[in-house]
Amino acid sequence: MSLSATLRTASSGLQAAQASLRTVSDNISNVNTPGYVRKAVDQESLVVNGAGMGVKIGGIRRVTDQYLQLASLTAASDAKRWDAVAEYLDNAQSLFGNPGNDGFFFNRLDKIFAGFSTVADDPSSTLLRGQALSNVQDFLTEADRINSQLVSLGDTVETRITAGIDRANHLLEQISVLNADIKRASLVGADASGSENIQSQLLDELSGLMNVRIAGRDGGGVDVRSAEGVLLAGDQPAKLNYVSTDSTPGYITALPANSTLEQPIELTSGELKGLTELRDVELPKIYEQLGEFVSKAVDQLNAAHNDAAAYPPPATMAGRNTGLDLTTAVTGFTGTSTIAIVNAAGVMQRSITVNFTAGTMSVNGGAATAFTPATFLADLNTALTGFGNATFSGGALTLNATGGNGLAIDEGTSNKAGRAFSHFFGLNDLIKTTGQANYATGLTAASPHGFTPGDQISLRLSHPDGRPIRDVNVTVPAAANMSDLLNSLNNNATGVGLYGAFSLDSNGVLTFAGSAPLNAKLSVATDNTERGAGGPSISQFFGLGVQARASRASQFALNPALQSDPTKLAAGKLDTAAAVGQVAVRPGDGQGALAIAGAGETSTLFQAAGSLGQVTMSLSRYASEFGGTVGRVAAAAETRKESAEGVAREATNRRQAVEGVNLDEELVNLTTYQQAFNASARMIQAASDLFEVLVNMV
């Protein structure tokens, strides 16, 4: 080997050792820098004409493991999802209070029953009546507070989703910019590890927000894609957009660079997945079940109060808006009910027995006369002649007693959709409602639907994760029956028939069930329908969609007449055996209050809501199930969070073991490269000495 070749070999070794020493120095100085990935110098043999001529630097690379990186990103994404879910479900659970405290929401129901039990022991005590009514008001106020805060929690989640989308867009933009920087550095052989480290940190943050697929690019940098393969970052970033309305599920779309077509993308993990799941699934489950629980609690209290009698008896009983016309409302009743006119002392003045099964009315036990649902009001007014009257307006039935008399009702065996006569019309409700809270309409397929023909309801069919399938606009048919409305809703071309079906159960509850394989979810985009002039829409009447159910627990208030005067509380019972001239309502009677106190143990049908399917059980049992469900869901989310975080920590630790700086290893490398540097320097010195000897010889 010539001396020139020797010098070139030694010089290349010296340069390689210097580059390696700089790399080791960078590693050591950044040992505690977050996101720093250790570097290594790739060295290659330099061969010229088949002869070794030293060493050359192939490049400076970051020491990474693609598998561990992807595993770490996936685990972190899952951990962020459950962290978000656990955080807000814990907040939701806390709204109900501590089960060990008196302020626990479900304990307030027990206080109601205990309060009315006390009233039954001393019905004449205005103080006890006032306390019992105060317990009812406290329960309703607390239900309203919890429901309102659950809805507000959903609003907070939506705000956070919007902020997360903005942040994701910023990250995608920065990742695309760094792709260009890394490519330029790679083309000129410069060290691109700094930009790659920054990009890696951005990818870590992005994967915490949403699950993404990452692949290396030729020339350096990465391509970022959604789960379906939509390019989110490469040469140019895509634009993410969050699409939502108050009544429909939210979803995320991506507008790729140089495209005009927005594409919905699927999220399977990440903070955004957890937040959208909270907004559209978990929180609605809780306030839907809260609405079902509160509405059935109100229903049972009202059922008992409607079957009770007040002393002195009220001159007027004004019912609630049923959303029905009177003929439809009366149709379908069975059993008997008694309407009594009594004087201020509770003495029977007139008794009207209505036999819905036979379709007859009997006055004071006399001969029965026939009626039909169409003639019910006129026939009832005939029976009340001289003692009172009945009116029907705006979906509400009102009874009036005249001549200083009052009204009392015995529900008897009357029944329609699980409610007795007075209860169905809300004539003597303890608790009033401002909207449709009970979706057992009592309608059958043969009933007139009552909605204005030509009006439209727009329904959105979505995947379980919220991504839209299609919107359908259903027009109310001119044909009059519920069967015709069901056919329009389930039409394959203009309805939901390709994705599921609506059905009407025996109590008139309208529900939608998605069909396989899509198992579509239904929401109401817009609803311009009306049942009669100014009546409820289809979604309001049947409780379709999140808007109708979100406010259900906030629609109740104690009857203002009772709130202002507790003596009007119906604490007694009508004696149906009393003849005209005999006492039928007594001042010291506590049977009605006792029935209200026992309402919690009455079996009732609860519609499917939240995590519970359709069940028949007592109100007290359902309260226990509901309270336990809220706690279990929050605890399960916390467990999933802890498990996901454990996996994420292990994945991160293994990744750090490869990518992180090990001082012992770097010190060994430092010593090795220092010795290599010294060896190359001595070789250069030896070559220099030989040159000098040769020159002197010449």
Describe the structure.
The chain is an alpha+beta fold. The protein is 45% helix and 20% strand. The protein has 16 helices and 25 strands. It is elongated.
Q: What is the distance, rounded to the nearest whole angstrom, between the alpha carbons of the first and last residues?
A: 20 Å
How many beta-strand segments?
A: 25
Structural class: alpha+beta
Largest sheet, strands/sense/barrel: 5 strands, antiparallel
Give the helix/strand layout.
Blueprint: H1 3-29, E1 39-48, E2 51-62, H2 66-94, H3 107-121, H4 126-187, H5 193-209, E3 213-216, E4 222-225, E5 231-233, E6 239-245, E7 248-255, E8 263-265, H6 271-306, E9 316-318, H7 326-330, E10 336-342, E11 348-355, E12 360-363, E13 368-370, H8 376-384, E14 388-393, E15 396-401, E16 406-410, H9 421-425, E17 431-433, E18 456-462, E19 468-475, H10 482-489, E20 500-504, E21 510-514, E22 521-527, H11 538-542, H12 545-550, E23 556-558, H13 560-564, H14 591-597, E24 603-606, E25 615-618, H15 619-659, H16 663-697
Antiparallel strand pairs: 1-2, 3-4, 4-5, 6-7, 7-8, 9-15, 10-11, 10-16, 11-12, 12-13, 14-15, 17-23, 18-19, 18-22, 20-21, 24-25
Comma- or semicolon-separated keywords:
alpha+beta; elongated; 25 strands; 16 helices; three-stranded antiparallel β-sheet; 698 residues; five-stranded antiparallel β-sheet
Question: Brief overview, please?
Answer:
By secondary structure, the chain is an alpha+beta fold.
